[in-house]
Amino acid sequence: MDNLSLYTQINSLPEHLKKEVMDFVEFLKLKAEKSKKQNSKKERQFGVLKGKIKISSSFDAPLDDFNEYMQ
Q1: Where is the DUF2281 domain (predicted)?
Q2: From first to last of its 71 residues, what are the pLDDT tens digits of the chain?
Q3: 0.70 exceeded by pTM
């Protein structure tokens, strides 16, 4: 639907319905702004998980399951 036909349709409405259309347009604009804010990427905070992840001291040690392949 192009702008001219939309304008024509809205212009043919009674005044009280034009007000409802205007309210709905405002609602859609607010909804679009809210959606845009939610979809924007947040900046990463480095170090947020510091101290929450622990790596075992034997992390780099060879696994017993692979002994026969490592000989």
Answers
A1: 6-69
A2: 799 999 999 999 999 999 999 999 999 999 998 887 776 667 888 988 899 988 888 888 888 888 888 77
A3: no
